[in-house]
Design goal:
The chain contains 5 helices and no strands. It has helices spanning 4-14, 18-25, 29-36, 44-54, 59-66. It has one domain (4-66): 434 Repressor (Amino-terminal Domain) (Orthogonal Bundle), CATH 1.10.260.40. It is mostly helical.
Length: 77
C-alpha cells in the first residue's frame, strides 16, 4: 500500500504538478489520485517513473512510500 502522506510530501517537495506526473505515468490525473489514495494500485513502471520524477533514489524511501504494509488503506491513522 502507498503511504499517502509520504508520497504527497515528496510531490510537494518536488514542485511538480500532479497533472504532469500523471501524464508521465501515462494515466489521467484522476487515476493518479486514485492510486495515491489507495483506491487502485500503482504498476511497477509507474513507481519507477514517479521515483525518477520525484528524485526518490534510496530503496528505503521507495519501500516506505510504495510498499508500506502498515499504512491504513486511506492513508489516515
Amino acid at each position: 500500500m502507498v503511504n499517502t502522506l509520504l508520497l504527497e510530501q515528496a510531490i510537494a517537495e518536488s514542485g511538480k504538478k500532479k497533472t504532469y506526473l500523471a501524464d508521465k505515468c501515462g494515466i489521467s490525473r484522476h487515476s493518479l489520485a486514485n492510486k495515491i489514495n489507495n483506491r487502485t494500485e500503482f504498476t511497477w513502471p509507474q513507481v519507477r517513473v514517479l521515483c525518477a520524477e520525484l528524485g526518490i533514489k534510496q530503496f528505503d524511501s521507495v519501500d516506505a512510500i510504495f510498499f508500506n504494509q502498515g499504512v491504513p488503506k486511506n492513508g489516515n491513522n
